[in-house]
Amino acid sequence: MTQAPSQEGTLPTAAAEVAGICSDLLRIDTTNEGEGKGRPERPAAEHIAVLLDEVGVDPVIAESAPGRANVLARVPGTDPDAPAFLIHGHMDVVPADPGEWSVHPFSGEVRDGYLWGRGAVDMKGTLAMTLATVRQRLREGRRTRGDLVLAFLADEECTGDYGSRHVVGEHADFFTGVEEAISESGGFSVTAAPGTRVYPIATGERGSAWMRLTARGVAGHGSKPAADNAVAELCHAISRLASYQWPVRLTPGVRRLLDGLGEALGAPIDHDRLDAEARRLGLVGRLFAGTIRNSANPTRLDAGYKVNVIPGSAYAQVDGRVLPGLSEEFFATVDRLLGPKITREFINHEQAIAADADGPTFAALAGALRAEDAAAHPVPYVMSGGTDAKAFARIGIRSFGFAPLLLGPELDYQAMFHGVDERVPVAGLEFGTRVLDRFLDTR
Ligand SMILES: [Zn+2]
Q1: Ligand 1 centre from 120 Cα, in Å?
Q2: In a domain, 198, yes or no
Q3: CATH number reported for the structural domain that contains residue 411 in this entry
């Protein structure tokens, strides 16, 4: 039911079929539980491959493990000398507990103008916009100048080992000549004031430093005086780390965002009291609250096996996030806080990434938004977390977070990511197809 009803002889537009495509994708459960567990992406990949095949694209389904499928396609452009452009997105979603939801998270139901379901915003809505827009353009014979490369990926909600990391390693030939890309987490509207909508376009991400900490001590009987208790040592270290106030560090990307927001709001943001400003500005404030400093949150603890035994070691995991250029300061601080008795190793370590907020691609993205929304104020912003963009950065591709959506002021969009009752307005998706289409006209 991806084809919207159409008159005999007329072709469905992207706006007409985007909700149907999204609904179909939402009904395919692609839950990623991490550590290789969950529902594999293969059925979604096959569905997407059919949608591409229908408009003459010849996609490849590349599996990284049984069922862990990625869809790759390269649509030839009209000018072999023009740079290729990539749109990438992930097919997997985080788990959803139906008991907590108002509608079943895998029903793909439309209610009150919204499409409900796990993945509606993260990020099957964006996949649907991409597919609908590309399908309309190809049906109308409108190609981009450079090749348009499409990558629908597995495993973004874990490490990307079965998805983005796999394809940049094993299928790098698909991305030859690609310098820039768009993907999730940007381009959505945030109502800053009546009639003023800020559209953050992601031009960077903090780096990831996921660490496993180990405290070693002397094992012994729980009733005896402890010589060197690993559990206590780890708790002290974690307490120092968790209560540390990371200093504000304004990187160039965040400075640009603050300038843009000040312009949109008609009053500058006070750089000397950014935490208070973030709270005052609500949804707009959240665009920078998570990127004005490094962070290191303890997330797991593991020690001991019996109440009357002091274990010889204790473990913790910490989610560290590092602003561009601040790695050295981050690790020096972490080591000082942990102290000499704690050792650390990486579970995952990736550098911060950045795209060009002053180049023609950013200008084209911003222009496409302004053309469809007269109240649009596009601003560059930095993401506090990470996406598949980091894997593509390894092969020299700079990604912009751009999944255009027009949202009403009532929807807390960022709470939708991995949230209960995740949903996306149908009109917002339709808007997104028009913006994407305009942008692709510039490629
Ligand atoms: Zn996502």
Answers
A1: 10
A2: no
A3: 3.40.630.10
